[in-house]
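Exercise 3.2. Students should predict the tertiary structure of the chain below and write it as structure tokens, then compare their answer with the key that follows.

Predict this chain's 3D structure.
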Amino acid sequence: MNAALTLILHRLVYSLGTLALVSVIIFAAVEVLPGDIPSRILGREAPLEAREKLRVELGLNRPAVERYFDWAAGALRGDFGTSISARRPVADMVWARLSNTLALAGLALLIYIPLSIIPALVQALYANKLPDRIISTLTVLVLSTPEFLLATLLLFGLAVALPLFPPLAQVSAATGPLDFIRIITLPALSLAILLAVYGTRLLRESLIELLDSDFIRMAELKGLPRRRIILRHALPNALIPWLNATAINFAFMIGGVVVVERVFIFPGFGSLLVDALQLRDIPLIEASVLIAAFIFIAVNLLADIGAILLNPKLRT
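Answer key:
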């Protein structure tokens, strides 16, 4: 069997096993949370009979192992149960927020790719020269800036001083596609800038290291143009670690952008998870964390596949 296909199958099996293990950890972690769920819903002063009746309705009187397999089977069908706080299907609540966040992350990724690759190429072409030092200084400046401060500065600059974008990213099902893109552009730009500095620094180091390697020197001795050497020979190899970093960045954008969502009042997946934790909405917590873990694993799997396909030794 082709070496690349074998590696991809290994990564797929490993990812499925990881997801199964994560689902067990999520369920067990929620089980050991302190507090009694029926008492939290009905209040501590509620009669014991009412609390016991609700416990039976929620299935909390059954063994944890039995409830885990029911929950896992439901998750495979896309049925995560009913939210305790909102009394609505969890799948509907999660999908509404997840679609918003996926759109935000997708737009941020489109901005992130050129924003991280182009400066790294410039730095590699002019290593230790003025353009390299200017970009390095800017990346360090952004790295040292907290998320909420950068988002607030962009909000003030591009929505208040120069009213190019709306200050709040409030969207609904009635929002048209063009208005939706315009509304989420500012938070997407914030995310892209925050994450691009990591990608730029990583890609710069990889490119400079590759440009000092033997096969690049051989290409230079053959008289190939510098630009072609970088774009055709150095960049594809340097993109392998960058792909893994991009996968982690994209997964982070799904559930870890609560600060940016709060600054722009964006109804995203991260805010939903925080609200679920505050309300101790167990079905919503389990579904949100499991979906975030699934996306993280799936994106890393795609990055691994991309890295395998970019490696010429594995394509033979």
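Discussion points: The mean pLDDT is 84. Residues 90-125 form the longest helix (36 residues).
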